Amino acid sequence: MKLLDSLHRWTGGLIGLLLALLGLTGTILIHRDAWVMLPHAGDVQVQDTAVLAVTTQRLMQGLMQGPMQGDGPQPRAITYAGADFGLDRLAFADGAGAYVTQTGDPVARWDSQWQRPELWLSDLHQHLFAGDAGETVIGIAGLCGLFFVVSGSVLWWRTRRTFEWRLWPARMTRPAILRHHRDLGIVVAPLLALSLVTGAVLVFRPLSAVLLGPGAPQEIDRKLAAPKAQARALSPDLDWAEMIIAARARFPDAEVRSLSLPRGQSGLITLRMRGPGEWLPNGRTTVWFAADSGRIVATRDAADLPARVRGYNLLYPLHAAKVGGLAFRLVMSLSGLALSLLGTLAVWTFWFRRPVRRPVRPPVRRGS
């Protein structure tokens, strides 16, 4: 038990601030649709096929309405407005982007993610501004956080009779902070486990075998992979409107969620849709089009995916509180704030609030 206590304290002292940062940024991002305040951000979601077709044609041809009308760059991707955010988001090369209304009117543009706090916060939370390497570090931190939940629960059991519910330490002394740390940690342990497990599995897909059974990672990779297609150059004369219409004819009950141009050696344009019952914000129902002709090459209905793949698709909505409405967002906010508080105070007590050991003086002998 002493070894477990030492591992818990030392690991927390070394990585606590990183977990605190992830908890705080995650909490802020859960509510991003509420604090990104732009004109038309509160517009009702439009999913009329004709409007989507016309707007997509205009945006992909680089033609925008309003004061910025004229030939412009073609976006690399479009994320369409959702139920909680009424603007389409365009992504261009080199980190540039724009928000436009659901009919194509420009609202905001940026040349770098640093001009939009919701974008650089998202990059910080997911990649630590370091791409794949940062994502790996975050995944390792998530696994360490899961170790804290398990080891902390074991260590708390010894002191369970002194449990007291407090949101904040009774005093800013080391014993009071440690007691608060143990008691708050056991209260939020289930929420922390949910956040940390889902986050770690999203980073390290092979860990899905622990949740979904042996062979799950391979099945997920296989079922979610794009179809193999010959590399094709993107035609400048594609009928984008007809592509939207064709996809809607194939999946009439699905929301149109995102459109992206081919990446790497792929010759496929990807249209993601969200079918009925899907929790994933952008869905896994997908239509692929040939980049040179715009014809449908392949489709995938998320409802036909194996149970384990559908289970994997639930992880991100749970992690980011994309289901359950405001109530679940508040619950996951509690998880993030608790992680931030626990991590910060753990580092502070470990490095800066160590007890001062006074020298022991030998007892004074009195003469007889």
TrEMBL record:
**What domain of life?**
Bacteria
Secretion signal: which residues? none
Q: Which Pfam families match?
A: PepSY_TM
Q: Sorted alphabetically, which InterPro entries does this protein's record hold?
A: PepSY-ass_TM (IPR005625)
Positions of transmembrane segments: 12-30, 137-157, 184-204, 326-351
Provide this UniProt record's keywords sorted from A to Z: Membrane, Transmembrane, Transmembrane helix
Record keywords: Membrane included? yes
Q: What is this protein called?
A: PepSY-associated TM helix domain-containing protein
Biological classification of the source: Bacteria, Pseudomonadati, Pseudomonadota, Alphaproteobacteria, Sphingomonadales
